[in-house]
Amino acid sequence: MTLQTAGIHHITAFARDPQANVDFYAGVLGLRLVKKTINFDAPEVYHLYFGDQAGSPGTIITFFPWPNSRKGTIGGGQVGITSYAVPVGSLPFWEQRLASFGIETAKVSRFAEQYLQFTDNEGLRLELVERAEGAQSQWTFGGITSDQAIKGFGGAVLFSVNPQRTMNALEQLLGLEKVAEDTAYARFRSQGDIGNVIDVPLAAMSRGSDGAGTVHHIAWRASDFPQHADWRSTVETYGYHPTPIVDRQYFNALYFREAGGILFEIATDPPGFARDEPADQLGSRLMLPDWFEPHRTQIEANLLPIEVRALEGKSV
């Protein structure tokens, strides 16, 4: 093993209501809607990207909000919990903010860290953890300051139908280091300072089912295009069957399903989200790849209108 990923590039999940999705991730959590585009394989569905001010790798959660889609079941073969890192000292702010929007929270501990767990409007499992590492977000919205704003991913909890095989892939294929284990979890760490802590429950999970409120895949970082090609060869050498490299406009991607059932992607850090609109206008209009541009009028007519809006919680 010579390649090592810096950590999570992005996480992609399913949702139903696009406006409710924007309200939760931009309005409640204060993330920036950095790209409003479509699912290239199903152009009648949005593909929405939320992250820090630039949509930096390690901060990006993306959604396919498909109205009237089925409800999913969280289980083996999925990211079970998506972890967000917030600045040290900010968890009380977040506990109060979430309560002001009627969002129930629970405090749990793993490996001597305190987490604030909750679900989004679709039932997707999320948690916040205070971390000193990682740059503070410069995106401020809805009364959330840089001292409180989500930095990006703290990491993820992977639910596997075969934990040992999943842990082998993390360590031997992706180059993460196993740093701790207790009776319930093993912890792995990548070389980056964001999106870098992965916990795997030691007990196998019953398989989940895709649908609203579940994660579709987790993507790992490749530093550039040549390294991405090397990753594809490495994945093949390890015994998996990666897809061809796909141009996703804002990164190149390849996909494979690891032996614990989780769909892994490896995505390039470049070219990023400012390739087709100015950095100060990210997410302001529907962006389409060239091959869909002739059909813009029809595509826009089939999509529900959405807007980013600041929300006011109730006093608690």
Automatic annotation (TrEMBL):
GO terms for molecular function: dioxygenase activity. Its EC number is 1.13.11.-. It holds the Pfam family Glyoxalase. Residues 7-131, 152-269 form the VOC domain. It comes from the Bacteria. InterPro entries: Extradiol_RC_dioxygenase, Glyas_Fos-R_dOase_dom, VOC_core. CDD domains: PcpA_C_like, PcpA_N_like. Keywords: Dioxygenase, Oxidoreductase. This is Ring-cleaving dioxygenase MhqO. The gene is mhqO.
